[in-house]
Amino acid sequence: MNRTYLQPLPVRMWHWINVLCFFALIVTGAQIRYRDVLNLMTFRSAVDIHNFIGFVLLGNFIVWAVYYLVTGQLRIYIPDPNLKNFILAALKQARYYGYGIFIGEPNPHHATPVSKFNAMQQVAYFNIMLLFMPLQIISGILMWDIKRFAGVIAFAGGIKFVDAVHVFLTLFFTAFLFVHVYLATLGHPWTQHIKAMFTGYEDEPEGVH
Prior knowledge:
mainly alpha, two-stranded antiparallel sheet, Fumarate Reductase Cytochrome B subunit, single chain, 7 helices
């Protein structure tokens, strides 16, 4: 077996806190938006919990950013600056996801501590962590106190626009959860990537790359 220490403890802690926050925010957000349909909790409770968890998510995001900046590992999210190499790697990975995986071909990308993500994952996670997540947090903060941030909200296009951004990103992140879980089952065996988020280690049979 090839054993690789792929997920350090801070990354695993951040990941599972993020998971819990996402689920709590989705549930409470749905209760807030569809209060006439759902009856999971009172509207006031949903708002209070949503706000509290939102700030937990903000703190967790700051921890993530500081950790990756201090350790110099932020580069794992940045795609290859050589456009030709990046395109070739992305096409190979797309072929694997769309065809190769179904006929037993090996994954063209082998994750290591300094190269965790394939080209397609880099593009996805780069946008998620450095663009979509900050936008979601900012839009949430603006709606947390509309009066205090009235000037910023007006500058951004009004409350309807800020709300639309927040809802659209919520739908995106909800859909992403399903894709993320599916991709997490593509290891050899299928539990490999999931176990790594608990133990930190990925174990692969010899020759499986």
